[in-house]
Amino acid sequence: MDQEKDFMTLDFDDGTSVECEILGVFEADGKEYIALVPQDGSEEIYFYGYVEINDEEFELVDILDDEEFEKAVAEFDRLTEEE
Prior knowledge:
By secondary structure, the protein is an alpha+beta fold. It has one domain (about 5-80). It has one helix at about 65-80; strands at about 5-10, 15-30, 30-40, 45-50, 60. It has a five-stranded antiparallel sheet. The chain starts with 6 loop residues before the first strand and ends with a helix.
């Protein structure tokens, strides 16, 4: 069964953009996060806070706190190991 992949474009402050595959939205420590893989050949995963505004709109929030970032990454790793 092929699951259709979802993509979004991230626009950065320096004027560059990158197309990213959405790996998923997940919860860690009571907050929602999103994991994105840039389609630029790198093996990075981008993590952002995820805030749903309504059914069709959401906002990505930079994770500025190192401890919060580590918790989000650890939860994502735990979830992907279970699959």
